[in-house]
Amino acid sequence: MIRILPLLLLTLFLSTGLGLAQEHLTCGVATGFPPYQFAIDGEPAGFDVDVAKAVCARLDTPARFEQGDWDNVVNMLLFGRIDLIVGMEINAFRHEYFEFSAPYAKRHDVVFVAANSTATSVEDLFGLVITGDRHSFVELLWKKEGIHHKIRIMQAKTKEESMDLLARGETAAAIMPLEVGKYLTRQRGLKIRMLMNPDPGSEVAIALRKGQPELLKRINEALLEMQSEGELSALARKWFSGTAKGRNRIPPVSRW
Question: The pTM is what?
Answer without folding.
Answer: 0.80
